[in-house]
DNA sequence: CAGGGGACTTGCAACTAGAATC
DNA sequence: GATTCTAGTTGCAAGTCCCCTG
């Protein structure tokens, strides 16, 4: 409350920056607002309430006012980042705790699980796990042996002794009735009337309203994930050794609540208690629990639209901008490391060169029980091939490895002769599965980077290079006299260049082939039309030549126009085809969300270009 | 100085709602 | 007006990086 009094001036100062970072990612925020007048109303009331309370406060004693001043000073420090120095992230935090998924609802007795062809009644806990598998029946996962084995092992653990005795072979299990039941259920849901859907929507809104927001330093902030993750089967990415394992149901007894001391502590669900309630303001999370697959901690945190996340995001781009100023000296420093007499330094020089030039990730070491993926520092000899000459280029490095999320990175890059020589040296007398950079680690790399520029780490290069590329591409691709569609295309192309740099890929859309075929048919038709029109034009010209008249002349002109128009349409379709093909496996979202400095896109938007940034 | 835990960011896939098309 | 397509949103897995411990 005290802050309310003193923040206006500060807020005004901060406004432009906070706006851009905060709202960068969130069209949804804007949309939600326009969708939900109720919410607007609630927000207004909230503000009003705060104002009222503030008025009350104002009437209180002098002493309190003085305290408020002091509070305000603290606030100022926070604004200037001094708060962060002692690690404090907030002064007050109040919320309702996470929302738990509904209890398991047993299947109707008409839906039976079959073992060896005969119906078997499972106890609810066993049945629940069976439904997890049944729901995924038409997913590729269930055809994988690792998935099946992991599932079956974990499923058996849930079974009673009798069930376990009976069900000893997954291939004898028939989940198809259960699968069918859920398919029908989704179908039913789809066919609901508008009114029924509306009711459901309102119920969901109510929950979001109640659990989806918290009060941080007196401000109502949206929570990113206020729901506890429901139980299910773990779906790793790539060849994950743990795929299919049972992700257990999280109980309130597993959950740690983090909030301020002096506020209403969230209520655990009836009959339950929290694992712990703590009041740690050096962290930003509201609740946490340990997930059972890897033993990692999961958190309930704020939405990116919140001030806390927005500030951090802003800082990230500021660091990237700072790197721009010192990147030249850092580059010459790592280049000189290529000829160092110390192997470690050479490896450092080449690794950082890759991170800078190719926007590779740092590549931390990983646990064995995850998919085998690598980044720069964890590259192995088998992941690169050296070519003295390739495709009329000299000193080419061919990369082929699986990166984050098991996305393949394949690239052929010409490099400096000294880099090439160094790589040969690093690979010398090593096995294919040996580390390419065996003398360095991400910790070492980041330590060196931090010495070169405070706050600099490997990942900053990705942000820096992404934003730089966007700006460069925009400069290259745009001119002032372009039409709006051309500008938009240019922006998308620039965005795509960034996505390619960062290797942001997606699976080709399921309907891709189909819609592409459709498009190709359209193109073919158009081509035929063009041919036909051309023929007619030729004929018309011929007739005009033989027997010139006003009518024949007009016909020629008309046909010429038609041909021109059709050719334009054809070209447009062909362009669309190229565009779609280029975008087939490229994902633009990630770079838009995490890498491109919003300020660049804001500048585009000012020029009238719809960038897809919800500003 | 390795190894592991903790906190936070990044990234793909699945889902969903709204626009486009028939 | 129903159906299909597409873009935006959500869910949660998988990274990065920092800190602590021994």
From TrEMBL:
InterPro entries (alphabetical): DNA_brk_join_enz, DNA_topo_DNA_db_N_dom1, DNA_topo_DNA_db_N_dom2, TopoI, TopoI_C_dom, TopoI_cat_a-hlx-sub_euk, TopoI_cat_a/b-sub_euk, TopoI_cat_euk
Biological process, per Gene Ontology: chromosome segregation; DNA replication; DNA topological change
SMART domains: TOPEUc
Pfam families (UniProt xref): Topo_C_assoc, Topoisom_I, Topoisom_I_N
GO cellular component: chromosome; nucleolus
Coiled-coil ranges per UniProt: 183-210, 516-576
Region annotation Disordered: where it falls in the sequence: 1-73
Record SUPFAM superfamilies: DNA breaking-rejoining enzymes (SSF56349), Eukaryotic DNA topoisomerase I, dispensable insert domain (SSF46596), Eukaryotic DNA topoisomerase I, N-terminal DNA-binding fragment (SSF56741)
Bias-annotated ranges (Basic residues): 22-34
Catalytic activity: ATP-independent breakage of single-stranded DNA, followed by passage and rejoining
Keyword list, A-Z: Coiled coil, DNA-binding, Isomerase, Topoisomerase
GO molecular function: DNA binding; DNA topoisomerase type I (single strand cut, ATP-independent) activity
PANTHER family, alphabetized: DNA TOPOISOMERASE I, DNA TOPOISOMERASE I, MITOCHONDRIAL
Family: Belongs to the type IB topoisomerase family.
Primary role: Releases the supercoiling and torsional tension of DNA introduced during the DNA replication and transcription by transiently cleaving and rejoining one strand of the DNA duplex. Introduces a single-strand break via transesterification at the specific target site 5'-[CT]CCTTp site in duplex DNA. The scissile phosphodiester is attacked by the catalytic tyrosine of the enzyme, resulting in the formation of a DNA-(3'-phosphotyrosyl)-enzyme intermediate and the expulsion of a 5'-OH DNA strand. The free DNA strand then undergoes passage around the unbroken strand thus removing DNA supercoils.
Protein name according to UniProt: DNA topoisomerase I
Annotated source species: Pygocentrus nattereri
């Amino acid at each position: 409350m005290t802050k309310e009094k003193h923040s206006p001036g500060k807020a005004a100062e901060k406004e432009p920056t906070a706006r851009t970072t905060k709202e960068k990612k969130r069209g949804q925020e804007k949309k939600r607002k326009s969708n939900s007048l109720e919410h607007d109303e609630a927000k207004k009331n909230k503000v009003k309430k705060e104002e009222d309370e503030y008025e009350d406060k104002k009437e209180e004693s002098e002493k309190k006012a003085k305290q408020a001043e002091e509070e305000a000073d603290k606030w100022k420090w926070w604004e200037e980042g001094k708060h962060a120095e002692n690690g404090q992230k907030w002064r007050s935090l109040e919320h309702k705790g996470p929302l738990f998924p509904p209890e398991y609802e047993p299947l109707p007795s008409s839906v039976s699980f079959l073992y060896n062809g005969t119906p078997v009644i499972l106890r609810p806990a066993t049945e629940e796990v069976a439904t997890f598998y049944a729901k995924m029946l038409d997913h590729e996962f269930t055809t994988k042996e690792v998935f099946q084995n992991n599932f079956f092992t974990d499923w058996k653990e849930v079974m009673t002794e009798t069930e376990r005795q009976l069900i000893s072979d997954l291939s004898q299990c028939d989940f198809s009735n259960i699968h069918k039941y859920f398919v029908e259920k989704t179908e039913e849901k789809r066919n609901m009337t508008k009114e029924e859907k509306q009711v459901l929507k309102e119920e969901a809104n109510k929950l979001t309203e109640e659990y989806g927001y918290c009060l941080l330093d007196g401000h109502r902030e949206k929570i990113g994930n206020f729901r506890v993750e429901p139980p299910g089967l773990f779906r790793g990415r790539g060849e994950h050794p743990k795929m299919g394992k049972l992700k257990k149901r999280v109980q309130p007894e597993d959950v740690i609540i983090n909030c301020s001391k002096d506020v209403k502590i969230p209520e655990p669900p009836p009959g339950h208690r929290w694992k712990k309630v703590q009041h740690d303001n050096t962290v930003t999370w509201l609740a946490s629990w340990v997930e059972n697959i890897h033993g990692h901690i999961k958190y309930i945190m704020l939405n990116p639209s919140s001030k806390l996340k927005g500030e951090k995001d802003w800082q990230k781009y500021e660091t990237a901008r700072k790197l721009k100023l010192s990147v030249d000296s850092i580059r010459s420093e790592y280049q000189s490391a290529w000829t160092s007499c110390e192997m470690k330094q050479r490896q450092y020089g080449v690794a950082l060169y890759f991170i800078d030039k190719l926007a590779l990730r740092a590549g931390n070491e990983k646990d064995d029980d995850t998919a085998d993926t690598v980044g720069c520092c964890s590259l192995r000899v088998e992941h690169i091939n050296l070519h003295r000459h390739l495709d009329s280029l000299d000193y080419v490095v061919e990369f082929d490895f699986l990166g984050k999320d098991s996305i393949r990175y394949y690239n052929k890059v010409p490099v400096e002769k000294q880099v090439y020589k160094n790589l040969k040296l690093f690979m010398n007398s090593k096995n294919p599965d040996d580390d390419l950079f065996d003398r360095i680690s991400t910790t070492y790399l980041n330590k060196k980077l931090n010495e070169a520029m405070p706050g600099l780490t490997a990942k900053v290069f990705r942000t820096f290079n992404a934003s730089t590329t966007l700006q460069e591409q925009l400069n290259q691709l745009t001119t002032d006299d372009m039409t709006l569609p051309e500008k938009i295309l240019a922006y998308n192309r620039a965005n795509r260049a960034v996505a390619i740099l960062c290797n942001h890929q997606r699976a080709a859309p399921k309907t891709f082939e189909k819609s592409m075929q459709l498009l190709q048919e359209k193109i073919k038709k158009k081509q035929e039309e063009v041919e036909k029109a051309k023929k007619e034009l030729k004929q018309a010209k011929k007739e005009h030549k033989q027997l010139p008249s006003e009518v024949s002349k007009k016909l020629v002109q008309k046909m010429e126009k038609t041909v021109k128009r059709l050719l334009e349409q054809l070209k447009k379709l062909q362009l669309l085809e190229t565009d779609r093909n280029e975008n087939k496996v490229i994902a633009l979202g990630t770079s838009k969300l995490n890498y491109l400095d919003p300020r660049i896109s804001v500048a585009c938007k000012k020029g009238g270009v719809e960038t897809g940034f919800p500003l």
